[in-house]
Design brief:
The protein is of the alpha+beta class. 28% of the residues lie in helices and 41% in strands. The strands form 2 sheets. Strands 1-2-3-4-7 form a 5-stranded antiparallel β-sheet. The longest helix has 22 residues.
Length: 155
């Protein structure tokens, strides 16, 4: 009985599909447009503007091993100060202008978490030198939770 029901359903769906293909066919470029739309949405989610903060250029190119970076997506801004530690690692001090609920720094498969402090301050100690990315879960002005992530940067 179940096989007969399945066959009847399949035939009904095939007729319905044929009607829709005749009445409202799928546009030839739909797949390409959808791939482009998803790619743009993903870029929008991942995109954050990197700005080298004025005045820190000399420190980056001088003997001091520090960098000050600012990331913004137009809604949330993050300021990072990356400096070398005596142990050869990096210290990353950061400030976020939104209410941060979770803060993670990742390098490849490794990940560290920081607790958001007063005035959006957070820090990571003794991070190995290398390419890193910061990910935050923030609450925006409307109370909606969203993810903010920076492009990769050199820690």
């Amino acid at each position: 009985m179940e096989t007969e029901d399945f066959a009847a359903d399949a035939a009904l769906f095939a007729r319905l599909r044929a009607v829709w293909q005749e009445v409202d066919p799928v546009p030839a470029d739909l797949v390409d447009r959808m791939v482009a739309a998803v790619a743009v949405e993903d870029l929008t989610r991942e995109y954050a503007l990197l700005t080298l903060v004025e005045g820190s250029l000399a420190a980056v190119r001088g003997e001091a091993d520090t960098a000050t970076l600012q990331f913004s997506d137009g809604t949330t801004s993050v300021l990072l100060h990356v400096s070398a530690t005596d142990g050869g690692g990096r210290r990353v001090d950061g400030w976020v202008d939104a209410t941060a609920l979770a803060i993670r720094l990742s390098q490849g498969e490794r990940e560290w978490t920081a607790e958001p402090g007063e005035h959006g301050r957070f820090a990571f100690d003794e991070i190995p030198p290398g390419v890193a990315r910061l990910r935050l879960v923030v609450k925006d002005a409307t109370g909606e939770l969203r993810e903010f992530q920076t492009p990769q940067f050199e820690a």
